[in-house]
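Let us work through a complete example step by step.
Step 1: write down the sequence.
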Amino acid sequence: MKKTLKWFGITVGVIALLIGSLALYSYYIGARGFVVVEETLAVPNWSPELDGFRVLAISDIHAGSNYAPEERLRYMVEQANAQNADIIVLLGDYVSESKLDRRRLNLPEGEDGSELRIPVATFAEIFGGFRARHGVFSVIGNHDNWHNGRKIRAELERVGIRVLENEIAEVSVAENIVRIWGIEDLWKNRRVPTDTFEQLTDKRNVIAITHNPDSLLQTSSQIALMFAGHSHGGQMNWPLFGPIAAVNDARFMDGHAVADGKHVYVTSGVGTSVIPFRLRVPPEIAVVTINSADR
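Step 2: predict the structure and record it as tokens.
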């Protein structure tokens, strides 16, 4: 009996040590990394004349979360600008809450629903430093809406970032037009409004940007490519088991995915949310080069 209890105690101790080591690594090392991911995709509904168009995608910054202080945000902007992208797309969840108002889902629009680790005006000033050949475009995420989506939109637009909510922006590239379709966050009304897209007479070369990749399932197959975030890549990519899809379709965790013939690229983001850990999912920005599959 004593021997059994001894081995039980040793086993529990080893497990506790492993869990503690993983937690320390994920907090102090995993969340402090930073990578620039590069990928080239061939997608449908894209003109060959636009091959080589470079999109830099950034999501889930969660300003002020574990190792996402102001200095890290400035470094992120510097690294993004160094990629010389054609456009930069910011995919929502810019805020990190220090305290939530339990009434947040019932507050009047325009009223703050949470206290933030970094004020909106502060991180917006930093984001105002983003530079891309054809501009910077953004959408609002679920955490942003829970805080104050109207304020965040106003602050981003104040520093020159175009916020698209069920709107389409057009970019002229040589003799072609690239259309950026910004879709509201799926959790806002649990739907993807498609009227703006359906009104287009020419539906080629459409890049959809939104926060939640599950929006792809309600989006037209005529888009070329969707960019999204929200998943954080699971934040914890467990050995053997992989990441857990807690907030989105398991197909849309990180990187390129295709569903029903539609293409989406999911970036795992910069900051952390709910838990301040990242294991084998380093903070990232993603540079995606788009080529035509219609050859």
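Step 3: interpret the result. Residues 21 and 213 are 32 Å apart (CA to CA).
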